[in-house]
Amino acid sequence: MLLELDAVSKAFPTRGGPPARVMERVSLEVRAGEFMAVLGPSGCGKSTLLQMAAGLLPPTEGVVRVLGRPITAPPPEAVYVFQQYSRSLLPWRSVRDNVAFALEHRIGRRAARAAAEAPLAQVGLAGFGDHYPWQLSGGMQQRVAIARALAAEPALLLMDEPFSAVDALTRLDLHALVLEICARRKLTVLLVTHDVEEAITLADRIAVLTPRPTTVAQVIEVGIDRPRDPVATRELPRFLELRHALLERLMTRHVG
Amino acid sequence: MRAPTSGTWLVLGLLALWEASARFGWVDSPNWPPVTEVLRALWQDSVTGELPARVGGSLYRMAAGLLAGGAAGVAVGLAFALVPLTARLFGLVVEAVRPIPIPAVIPPLVLFLGLDDPMKITVVALTVFFPVLTNTMQGVRAVEAEALAMGRTFGIGPWRRAACIVLPSCLPYTLAGLRVALGLALVVTVVAEMIAGEQGVGSYLVLMQFAGRAPEMYATVLLLAGLGYALNRGFVALEHRAIHWWFAMGR
Amino acid sequence: MNITRRATLALPAALAAPALHAQAPTKMRVSVIPVLDVAPLHAAIREGYFAAEGIEIDTSTTAGGATGLPGLVAGQFRVVFSNVVSIMLGVREGLPFRFVSGASVGKDSPPDILALLVRKGSGIATGKDLEGKRLASNTRNNIVWLRGMAWVEKTGGDWRRVSTVEVPFPQMADALAGGRVDAAIFSEPFVAAALETHGDRLERIGWPISETAPGGTNAQYVAMAEDLAANAELFDRFARALHKGVDWVNARAGQPALLELIAAFSRVPLARLQRTALPAYPKGVTPAELDTLVATMQRYGLTGSYPASAGLIHRTARV
Ligand SMILES: Nc1ncnc2c1ncn2[C@@H]1O[C@H](COP(=O)(O)OP(=O)(O)OP(=O)(O)O)[C@@H](O)[C@H]1O
Ligand SMILES: [Mg+2]
């Protein structure tokens, strides 16, 4: 098991009142090489869950394990891709230097710069190395963030709604990119999203969360063969069936 | 050559008005010499080397004060913002010292540091310290939490995170504080030099006042105005170079 | 504290002084005001009299007397040039100032180094006319102010009914010509400057020194008592050099060489200095002149108990 969340709870202290329990004994297992999506309504604690998985936020109760070892700090195997890509890119660094930032502290500036070219090409940004992030569109900025994550060559990629801030067409484009990267590399991915179609398109398994206090309601096998095409996949009967079931589940949860 | 801007024309117009008001006796005082006489005085004491030497001395004191006060402001600002304990320990002292007007701190500084450069540079450093401190703290607070978490997820240690994420992202704030401080620093340097001693533009101003040499006095005033303007322009140019990204992002 | 530390450090140096002259001159910082009165000090510096005594003088110009005497107490200066009223007020408060040398006194007859000016046509001619009016002095409670008050009384006015306004000398002529004050007591070279530039609008109505106290005392050099006791020999050398400067100046009274010297350190244009009245430059300070001054101070509200004058005069000023 690459990543394990074992009965993890999270409570945030509140002013005066009792702590707000956001997450209640969530258990989740991510196998090596699989793509797991976590699906939940907005505000249910998806980012919180992912940050705990990344070692960026300590759980109030429970344990997070990476390769069986309990973690208290960001483990070297995992890299986190942020929901707000524009805030995680460094505006004073060029695109190339932003990607190189993932490696500089390990292999030095010069080598890191050289190593940045391949992931940039992989996300389709060859030739944009000398640009600055703020000179790029939102979709391109998210590609830079992905390239930076790839540069670190992580075993585990943790992605927090990485495509929620881009338009629908760009999102499809990025889905294609992620599918292609996962096909090419041995990557384990934990993706958090509130977009049902995104989850089905990309994931092998989908964990559905309840509203707060959040628990895992269900884990569903997607069962759609790879390689997948982000456009064609959407027309498969299995896709429509899953979409229907998941939407209904989320909606009823919402209503009631 | 660029055509003079409307601002340039305004300055030239004001200088012409100055010249006329003195030449035609609109302002009738020997302590209001025509600007041409002022410029001649400026030229004369420049070619003797006296004014350049004094300006150099003043600039040295100002730069030393800027450097000391700026470095202290950045260090304390970072410490206050990053290590809450330091803010709790020393915050009150800083807040208590901040509102004291500079003229009021001069007598104790004279008592402890004397009348020479250490006192004058300290006065400048104190003036510079507060705007840099405040802005640096504000800058650290403005650092994106995502950027810091990004550093952690890539396994970058705290020192490197401070140097490569916190410092660059609060640089625009620190520089803005420094730009404010630069204007104050020149003024305070001259004021400190007016208290005592024989060095610098400030003491020249006192000497010329006592000698009743109005053209030289105004020459000093013009010189300081020009110096202040040039320093600010130079600083803004450096600032645009150092944090071009900040301006490009339209912040 | 500073003084005593310096004194203990300086003591062995002073004992070994004659041998050390040549290599290591003793640095002495002297607080001065850029006025005519300090001509002998600058003469002695320029003519190398201090160097010959193994002393290096470091003058520090202050805009007014304000930082001079406090700086002496704080140990910033070894010697301070100051007007006598400020010195005696410090002494009255128990500060251990001692006179090291005389600096300037008024002459017996006009022109004085002080003059009282009014606007032409203002109708003010006496102290009586000044009652209820605004009189500018560079500072309150200094020698300039004291002589002004004496002049008001001498010419029939009640000094308590004249309101004193503090105006720095460089701004006095403009303040007076502009009507912001009704009269002003100027010190040279500002008298000459005011008459040169505002002569068409200003006129002199009084000579406050020669009309109230001919030859009256004006300013001196002082040092701290402990410093003098611990380094008597050094101050002997200081006074010897300074007094050679006095001789140099007095030997050139009315000659261009003196005015050139003054122009060099004060930066006052030579042409103006030729119309400027100079003080007399004494070497010593007498108990009698101090007693007379203290009596005048008591009369104009600067009351209190002053120590006996004779005890304030260091041996170097008893000449
Ligand atoms: N530091 C914090 N202190 C207190 N409450 C917090 C904190 N961080 C998150 N919360 C609360 O926890 C809940 C879950 O937040 P989280 O950001 O994980 O939700 P999310 O599912 O990622 O939402 P979205 O879909 O909008 O990104 C929210 O109700 C939020 O108010
Ligand atoms: Mg979120």
The gist of it:
Chain C: Belongs to the bacterial solute-binding protein SsuA/TauA family. The complex is a heterotrimer of chains A (256), B (251) and C (319). With 256 residues, chain A is α/β, with parallel strands linked by helices.
Task: Write a concise keyword list for the protein shown above.
heterotrimer; A: 256 residues; alpha/beta; 6-stranded mixed sheet; 4-stranded antiparallel sheet; 8 helices; globular; B: 251 residues; mainly alpha; MetI-like fold; 11 helices; 82% helix; binds adenosine-5'-triphosphate; binds magnesium ion
Assign the CATH architecture of the domain at 74-248 in chain B: Orthogonal Bundle
Rg for CA atoms of chain A: 18 Å
What share of residues of chain B is helical?
Answer: over 70%
Q: Provide the spatial order of strands within the biggest beta sheet of chain A.
A: 6-7-8-3-9-10
Distance between the termini of chain B: 30 Å
Q: Largest sheet of chain B, described in full?
A: none
Report the largest inter-chain contact. B-C, 23 and 33 residues
Low-confidence stretches of chain B: none
* Total number of helices of chain A: 8
Task: Determine the mean pLDDT of chain B.
Answer: 87
Q: N- to C-terminal separation of chain A?
A: 35 Å
Q: DSSP strand (E) fraction of chain A?
A: 15-25%
CATH homologous superfamily designation of the domain at 74-248 in chain B:
MetI-like
Helix content, binned percent of chain A: 25-40%
Keywords (chain C): Signal
Subcellular location (chain C): Periplasm
Domain SsuA/THI5-like (chain C): 37-250
InterPro entries (chain C): SsuA/THI5 (IPR015168)
